[in-house]
Amino acid sequence: ADPAGCAALTVTGLAELTGTSEATVVRTARLLGYPGYRDLRLALAGLAAQQQSGRAPAITTDISVDDPIADVVAKLAYDEQQTLADTAAGLDTVQLGAAVTALAGARRTDVYGLGASGLVAQDLTQKLLRIGLIAHAPSDPHLAVTNAVQLRPGDVAIAITHSGSTGDVIEPLRVAFEHGATTVAVTGRPDGPVTQYADHVLTTSTARESELRPAAMSSRTSQLLVVDCLFVGVAQRTYEQAAPALSASYEALAHRHRSGPR
């Protein structure tokens, strides 16, 4: 690996060196979590500077209690970028497209998740609400099941669980599945128990778990990528409804973001 050499190359130069196209280089940078190739070059230049100073962190090792905070930042950033890249590379776009189609036409959507996955469920729900869709993310397991009983064909239920075996997430998905709703599982285990009740499975990737870096940290990152893909896909499909709904929600909240007293 030669971060300094890569950082010195233009997008054209790196494309020629690797025998690919400029578009492939830019796409790879984005898959690694950077907005564009320029940002990747800056990151590589920073890594090269650390290596030259003898302070390059061992970014593929676990975080230790003695790590300087700069190394903690570098290790976490590296792992999260890898998690995003691996999730993007492994995401089944056919399954994703089918889930987007179901969501775009759904009468109602329920999203189930607990703990860190519950936060992701809430994130997707509030996004769907802001484009005018009916969505719920019940945090109480009993409420999730009683909600699922009300679902019918034409509705969608999404279960978010990294392990794929969280009983309180699987149960409402099972109920929704048996009542005819279209079901989606967002999980790190494509062979996990949750998938037996899922019409569509969207697989996430995570960094290796350690004492100071629980799996919930990187699983949340990869889950957020998947739900963002779902949301943007739905917004594209429902653009005529989504665009004015988003504008209305921004306008309704605008005064809360202005500085100074009202």
TrEMBL record:
Which residues does the UniProt record annotate as the domain SIS?
99-240
Tell me which PROSITE patterns the record gives. HTH_RPIR, SIS
Residues covered by the HTH rpiR-type domain: 1-51
Q: What is this protein called?
A: MurR/RpiR family transcriptional regulator
GO biological processes:
carbohydrate derivative metabolic process
Tell me the lineage of the source organism: Bacteria, Bacillati, Actinomycetota, Actinomycetes, Kitasatosporales
One function term, GO molecular function aspect: DNA-binding transcription factor activity
KW Transport (keyword) present: no
What keywords would UniProt list here?
DNA-binding, Transcription, Transcription regulation
Question: Is Transcription a UniProt keyword of this protein?
Answer: yes
Q: Superkingdom of the source?
A: Bacteria
